[in-house]
Amino acid sequence: MNNSKSDSVLKPAKKLGALILTTLVVIGGLSLAGCKGNGSGGHGSVDGGVTINGTMTNCFGDSVFLYELVGNDAHKIATAPLTKEKQTSTFTLSVKVPHNGFYQLGTGPRSASIVILGPDEEITFTGDCFDMAKTAKVDNSPANQGYAFLSAKVSRKNNEANQVVQNIRTFSVTNPQMVPQLQNDLVRIQEEKSRFLDSVITAGGYLGKIASLLRFKPFDGNMLARYGNESNYFLRTFFNGIDLKDSEMAYIPQFGDRFRQFVFNLVQQQQPADSISKYVNQTFSQIDPQSSSYMVALSAVIQGLDQAQSDLFLPYAEEFLQKYPKPTSFTQNLQVRVEAIRRFAVGATPPEISLPDQNGNILTLSSLKGKYVMIDFWASWCRPCRAENPNVVRLYKQYHNKGFEVLGVSLDKEKNAWMAAIQQDGLVWKHVSDLQFWQSRAAQDYGVNSIPMTFLLDKEGKIIGKNLRGPALEEKLKELFNS
Questions:
Q1: Which residues partner with 56 through β-bridges?
Q2: Looking at domain 50-140, does it have CATH number 2.60.40?
Q3: Which residues lie closer than 8 Å to 96 by C-beta, 6 or more apart?
Q4: Residues 6 or more apart from 179 whose CB is under 8 A from it?
C-alpha cells in the first residue's frame, strides 16, 4: 500500500460505500420493491416516471438538479425550481429516469446526495444544503430506506473489524498471548459479514446486486489445500457471483470499485504486467464492449492502475480515449494525466531536480550523470517507504562501487524527522528536500501523488524503470551490472 496525496489523480464521481474487502458486511432480507431489474439486465428507459417532493434548508440556489451517475461522470438530466420561504425551500421534480440506479440530487455537485431511483415511484426528500451528504433523507422508498439500513450495518461492521485489526497490531508487540483470541474475533466478524451478504444476495432485487459486488471472503488457512496460495484464490474468486453481463451494474458505484480494487491488488501482488493484462482482458471478455458497463469497468481499471503507479496505466488510458472520444470531465482529466505520464515514460529524460541537501547546499540531479541513479520519493512518515529502505540499503552497498547511486527526495515537513529517519534506517546515499510536503517542487514536477515512487535512470539520465521495488529492483540491477 502507498501513502497517497489522494486516492488517484483521476477521482471517481462522489459515491457511497468504498470497497473495503476485509471488513464489509450488509444486512440480509432486503429487496428493492420500488426499483426492480427487468430480469435480463437489458438497458433502456424504464416504464413510468419518478416524482420527488422535497424540502431543503439553507439553500442559496434557485433550482434543484438531478444528475445521472455513470462511472466517473455526472450528467444533469432534470431541473426543478425551488420555492423559498425564509430558510426553507420546497420543490417537486418529475422525471422519467433512463434506468434503475444511483443518482445525485441537490442544488449542485458540491451540495447533493445520492439517491436510488426506479420506475413508478413518488418519494419524499429532505436535507440541509450546508451538509447534504450527512442530512439527506429519503422516505416512501423501500430502495433508499433499505440501502440506508444496509449502509449503517456496513459502517458498524467496518468499525468492529478495523478495531480488531488495530488491536492485533498493538497486542502482537505488547501482549502476544491476546492475539489468537483477537484473530478468532476477526474471523467471527468476517463470517457474520458473509452470512449477511448471502442473505441479501439470496433475497435478490437491486440490493442483491449491490451485495454481490461487496461479497468477497478473505483468504484463510482452510483455503490452502484448494487454492495453493492467496494470489490464486484472489484470481479465481474475486468476481464470483457477479453478473458482469447485467447492464444495470454500470449504474451501481460498487461495480467500478470492484474493478479498481482488482487491478490495484494485482499490482500490489507484484504480478507481471503481461499477467495483469491477461487477467483484466479475460474479465472484460464477459462484458458487452458496447455497453456502459464496459466503459465503467475500463475507467475503473485505469484509476486502479494509476493509483498503483503501474506502467499499464498508459495503454489502458489510451484505449479509453480512443474508444470514448466524447469530451467529459473524466476524459479531459485523463488526457492531462496521459500527457503527464508520457513525460516520464521509459526512454524519456525527466526534469532537473535542484534542491537543498541536509546541510543546505544545492544538489542537482544532472550532477549525477554517468551513474545509474534511482530517484526515490519518500518521507519519514511513510511506512511503506521505511519498510522498503532495508532492501535499498542492501542493494546500495552491493552496487554503489559499481556505479549505482540513489537520490532520496523527501516530502517531509520537519527537518528533524527527516534527519532522524535517515540515521535510523542507515540511508547513506544522497538526500535533498525543500520540506514542502506534497507541495515539494520536485514532487510537483514529477507528478508525485503517492509514495514511495521511484525512477531509475541510465548513465545518460534517461528513464529505464519506474517503481522498481524488492525483487524487481534487485533483478534490474543484476541485469545492469551483469552480476
A1: 89, 127
A2: yes
A3: 45, 46, 48, 49, 50
A4: 168, 171, 172
Query: For residue range 131-149, what is the model confidence (pLDDT) as tens digits?
Result: 998 899 999 888 888 888 8
Instruction: For 322-376, write each residue's pLDDT tens digit.
Output: 999 999 889 999 999 999 888 888 899 999 999 999 999 999 999 999 999 999 9
What is the residue extent of each domain of the chain?
A: 1-11+216-342, 50-140, 354-481
Residue 33 CA to residue 37 CA, distance in Å, equals 10
Contact 57, 126 (CB under 8 A): no
Burial level of 144, CB count in 10 A (0-12/13-18/19+)?
A: buried
Dig out the grid coordinates for 359 from the structure: 546541510
Question: Domain 354-481 is in which class?
Answer: alpha beta
Task: Sort residue 447 into left (φ over 0), alpha (ψ -120 to 50) or beta.
Answer: left
How far apart, in whole angstroms, are the C-alpha atoms of residue 360 and residue 355?
Answer: 9
The pTM (predicted TM-score) of the whole model is: 0.73
Residue in this structure with the C-alpha cell 488517484, named with its chain if needed = 8
